[in-house]
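Suppose a colleague, Dr. K., hands you the sequence of a protein chain of 287 amino acids and asks what its three-dimensional shape might be. Before reaching for any lab equipment, you can write down a predicted structure in C-alpha cell form. Begin with the sequence itself:
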Amino acid sequence: MGFVWRYLPLRASPQDGSLDKRGILLLIGWAIPFLLAFSFWGPERLGAPVWGGVLLAVALFFLFLWIRVEKDHPSPLFALSLIEIPTFRYAALAGFFFGPIFLGGVTFFPLYLQSVLGYPPAESGLLLLAFTVGGVVSTGAAGAWVSRHGRYKPLLVGCAIGFALLLGIAAVALPVQMPLLLLLTLMVMGAGFLGPFQALISVVGQNDVPIARVGSATSAIQFMRQIGSTVGLAFLNILYVAGQTWGQGRLLYGVRWVFGGMAGLGILLVGVLLLLPDERLRSERSS
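The predicted structure, expressed as C-alpha cells, is then:
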C-alpha cells in the first residue's frame, strides 16, 4: 500500500461518465446465482439439484436485464460493443478455457504428489516451486519473444497444443511411481507451456480496444477466466469422483480422469486460439 501511495501516478480519467450503478448491481445479481448453481450439482452438492436450476434461471433473468442496461448506458460497466472486436472476443474465450486448466492443475496435482506418489505436504510444496519457477521464467521469455517479434498467435497455439498433449498422456499413463528427475522435468515443461498465458491473454485482448476501454476489457477478460475456473473446477470434480468410482476407489484413476478433462479443455482452447487474428501487437494505442 505504501508503494502504491508513493509511486502510482495520479491521473485523470480519459473520459467523463457517470458510474454504472445499475450495471454493477445487475452483474452481482446474475454472477452470484450462476456460480452458486453449480454447488447444487455433482457428487458433493450443497442441496437438492432443483435449487441449482432455480438459481440458474434467476441468473439468466438478471443477465437479460444486465445486457439491456449495458446497451443503453452512456458509460457502461462493460461495453458490449467490445465483443465485435475479434482479438478481444477470442482472448476472453481463451481465458474462460484456460482458467479451469490452470486451477485444475493447482488443485489436483498436489493431490497426486501426496496421495499417489507419497510425498509429504512439505516436500510437495517444495516440488511445486519447480512449477512456479518454470512459470515465471516462461512468462518472462514469452514476453521478451513477443516484444521482439510482435506475433503472439504461434506462441499461444504451440503452447496450448503442448500442454494438451502432455495432459492427454497423463490421462492415459499417469504412473503410481515416478523418478524425481522425470517428475521435475514434466513439471517444468507443464509450467513452460502454461506460463505465456498468464499475461499474454490480457495483452492480446487489449490490442485492438480503444484506450478509454482498456480497463473494462482487461477486467472482463479476468472475469471470464474466473467464471471459467468456477464452472470448470466443478466439472473436473465430477470427473474426479467418477474416475475413482470406475477405478474401484483408487485415487489414481480419479486424477487420470481429471487430466483427461483438462486435456479436453486444452483442445477447446486450441480451437479458440486458432480463431485469433494472426497479427502483430500494436506499438501505438488508438484513442
